[in-house]
Amino acid sequence: MTPPIAPHSAMMGPPRYRRGWVDDAVAAIEADQCRTADTHLIRLIVPALAGIDIYLKDESTHPTGSLKHRLARSLFLYALCNGHIREGTPVVEASSGSTAVSEAYFAQMIGVPFYAVMPRTTSAEKIAAITHYGGNCHLIDDGRFLYAEAAALAARLGGHYMDQFTFAERATDWRGNNNIAESIFNQLQGERCPLPEWIVMSAGTGGTSATIGRYLRYRRHPTRLCVADVEHSAFFDAFCKGDCAQTCERPSLIEGVGRPRCEPSFVPGVVDRMMKVPDAASIAAMNVLTRRLRRPVGGSTGTNFLALCRLAAQMREAGTTGSLVTLICDSGERYRQTYYEPQWLAARGLDPAPVEAVLTAFLDTGTPMGLDILDADNPCQMRGAA
């Protein structure tokens, strides 16, 4: 529960600015980057897809367990270096879970209060992780008011609203500085196909896809970027229609990805192709990959993997070879009571079994995958360059 709120000015007295404190905070965060930035790039061996190499960048190994660790680090450095966070400044974020976990970690590291404004439906595991790092959970009933409530709470506290959905695309140095794109290409240098045909990334804030897409252009790599969007989200329609005002009333069931609006950090101009993936297909791909890795992954990783397999199927049908890369966004341990719980799936009308069978057959034998068999009512859709 959120403790009684007192304005920052009442708690701390007049605002102070100690440059030495900021220097120490930046140094602490950069030390964390030196220890943890270069996560493993796993090659998934699939004999049936000879000539197509599949790689998984495992972001679940960060200290806070997800890709959002990178984003949180960048957001804190951005806010510190722009003078938004000073000694004792309360930090507020609007988050469905993973970003808040990572931001709570960094807030605790530099000694500032942290408040996460989240939907009441956020998983208990993520709430527990936030409180573990000393964060406060401010739960609201209607996710449509997430942004407004976060801004209002920051104003009441006299603090800083981090606003990941606006600043994700600009907080990370897309030219390099060991960002995730540079890390992927460095790790691929000794591989058979060091320049992948595609990198696949789902969209939450849009910040990671913006970083990858910009880096590809900056380095003049031929690699293309495919962004996988979930069933209930505004990104795919915004991309297809060229209209970032698109919205989606129904919230995404896949935590961490999909948004009711096209977020400011989403940069459609750096995306070569988008794919809309039904929720049941995301869960199916999550299950298939979990069995192949012999450890659980999350639902957004399933979204990524389904899109990657669709691209692999198209490459196989065209007789082309090369490599494909996607991300393991977080561990499936956070979703034991949701995506891995049959009763939870049944209550939401999700049956991953048919797509699991298709995907398993494709990976085991190379059997072609058809769009029409994924979901008769909501087929997997693609838009963009082939």
Automatic annotation (TrEMBL):
Signal peptide start-end: none
Tryptophan synthase beta chain-like PALP domain: which residues? 39-327
This protein's record includes keyword Cell membrane: no
Source organism per entry reads Bradyrhizobium ontarionense
Q: What family is it from?
A: Belongs to the cysteine synthase/cystathionine beta-synthase family. Cds1 subfamily.
Q: What is this protein called?
A: L-cysteine desulfhydrase Cds1
* Keywords, ordered alphabetically: Cytoplasm, Lyase, Pyridoxal phosphate
N6-(pyridoxal phosphate)lysine found at: K68
* Gene3D superfamilies with a match to the protein in the record: 3.40.50.1100
Q: Which SUPFAM superfamilies match?
A: Tryptophan synthase beta subunit-like PLP-dependent enzymes
A Pfam entry, by short name: PALP
Co-factor(s):
pyridoxal 5'-phosphate
Q: What class of enzyme is it?
A: lyase
Q: Which InterPro entries match?
A: Cds1, Cys_Synth/Cystath_Beta-Synth, TrpB-like_PALP, TrpB-like_PALP_sf
